[in-house]
Design goal:
The chain is mainly β. It has one domain: Exo-inulinase, domain 1 (Jelly Rolls, Sandwich). The protein contains one helix and 15 strands. The strands form three sheets. Strands 1, 3, 4, 6, 9, 12, 13 and 15 form an eight-stranded antiparallel sheet that branches. Strand 10 and strand 11 form a beta hairpin.
Length: 246
């Protein structure tokens, strides 16, 4: 007959033994072979660090093109660029994959329209995966279509929108998808988004191209692709755009 005291003693020995075994089996992590590179941070969290590529500094659209390759036709004045409705989207001259992206934007101060017709634009990572730009301040629409949504896939965790006309920020960490030799996706894209400093997308897995009218799917593409800003017919403004390759 096993007494309670003997059972507890045996259990205690088992725990100690398993802990000792784990301690003996565990190997230390190998030390890094290279020192982390030095990056000088910006003066504020909105300023580009030393290794960032400044895509728009308020002066010109030299880093951007129209979708057909012609010069970008958006308006530049007073340190910002503004969508010219009907001019079409603009795309970066360079291509990017994994990245940290900072974008500042403002919807029109004079409110026109409702839902998706109010201050609509979008940041398209790799030209395919949209983080929605919209006036979502006291403006109802479908949840996975409001500001900060991974369009038609994920609503933001919270609505951190400022009133129309005020400048807002997106800080985006993006991991590009990977494909095998047959074009099948082996790793889906992932994205984390802070809106005005508030976490609204927490390392979510993107299910494919963020279509508005059909299910998401992946179509194989190169590891680097241009960034797109959308012309949705509203005079949305952008400024202080920079990106870091990761």
């Amino acid at each position: 007959m096993v007494t309670a005291r003997a059972f507890l003693a045996a259990a205690s020995i088992g725990v100690v033994g398993s802990s000792t075994m784990l301690a003996q089996d565990a190997a230390p992590f190998p030390p890094p072979k290279h020192a982390p590179p030095i990056v000088t941070p910006g003066r504020t969290s909105a300023d580009p660090p030393s290794d960032a590529i400044v895509l728009f500094d308020g002066r010109d659209l030299s880093k951007w093109r129209s979708a057909d390759g012609s010069p970008a036709k958006w308006l530049v004045r007073d340190g910002y660029m503004e969508v010219v409705p009907g001019a079409g989207e603009i795309v970066t001259a360079d291509s990017f994959g994994d990245c940290q992206l900072h974008v500042e934007w403002a919807t029109p101060a004079i409110v026109k329209g409702e839902g998706q017709e109010r201050g609509n634009s979008g940041v398209f990572l790799m030209g395919r995966y949209e983080i929605q730009v919209l006036d979502s301040y006291q403006n109802e629409t479908y949840f996975h279509g409001q500001a900060g949504a991974v369009y038609k896939q994920y609503a933001p965790l919270v609505n951190a929108s400022r009133p129309p006309g005020q400048w807002q920020t997106y800080d985006i960490i993006f991991k590009a998808p990977k494909f095998d030799d047959q074009g099948k996706v082996t790793e889906r894209a992932r994205v984390t988004v802070l809106h005005n400093g508030v976490l609204i997308q927490n390392n979510v897995e993107i299910y494919g191209i963020t279509y508005h009218d059909r299910p998401a799917l992946y179509i194989a593409h190169p590891p680097g692709q241009p960034l797109h800003l959308q012309d949705h017919g509203n005079p949305v403004r952008y400024r202080n755009i920079w990106i870091r390759r990761l």
